[in-house]
Amino acid sequence: MRIRDVDKEKLVITNAIDQIVRDGFQGFSMNKLAKACSISVGTLYIYYKDKDDLIQKIGAVIALKFFTGTVKDFSPEMSFEEGLWKQWENRAAFTMKYPKEVAFFEIVKHSPHSDIILDSIQEFADFRKIMKEFIDNGLRNKELVPMTFEAFWSVAYGPLYTLLNLHTEGKSMGGKPFKLTKEIMKEAFSRTIKALTP
Amino acid sequence: METELNSIHVFKTNIKNIDPACEMRKTLDDHSDIKHWSIDHEDVDCVLRVVSDVLKPETIIGMINQFGHECQELN
Fold first, then answer.
1. Which one, out of A94, A163, A180, A194, has a CA that is 20 to 30 A from the CA of A169?
2. Looking at beta carbons, which residues of chain A come within 8 Å of B50?
3. Which domain of life does the UniProt lineage start with (chain B) (predicted)?
4. What ipTM goes with this model?
5. Looking at the predicted structure, is the pLDDT value of residue B1 above 60?
6. How many folded domains does chain B comprise?
């Protein structure tokens, strides 16, 4: 009789993320993963059909965690400035709390797995709807300058993700040690808001 | 609904690749007691995974052997 072992599943997910972040998809194998977890390959195949299935299932768990975290205490009804700041706070908190998961998802993003993962999560559709509503409200209330979506996104989140990348690296230009603080985030945010509002 | 863990059977095989029109594929596809099956050709063990509430591992091994392939249960 097989019983689902939640701790073992967690161990598999943690090790898989570690290996994929370190070696990429090419260097990753079910056999290596089983060894790292001290479980048999057979057990691994009970939970996952193959390598692609494993990558997609883990990707879905992370994506779901990201969407849930990003909309926490956020409402599309918020004023544009308040809502965007909440987005910055939530996205920064997620990246700082789960740096490996974020690195894993960066790898997935540039692979064909990405669409399969996002299509498998109902919450992704909800997330997109909420974010669209937020932008539409901003435009209607004249708190936001109309622009191409990609141009909007790059201005609205580009500075944040640049700072978060530096934070994850632990250093900025010229190797200078760097740690992202709320003050620095606020500094960048105040200029970002100016660029987006009429 | 999540698949009941006890209905998943996993085997090490020597099935390196599989012709879409081959008899084995047809037999597994059409078998009324098999809910899903797949082979991971990328893996060194060419792992065959069969989901069935009814079939015993020995029966599945017998079926695969009939098609001239090696098949051994992975525990």
1. A194
2. none
3. Bacteria
4. 0.80
5. no
6. 1
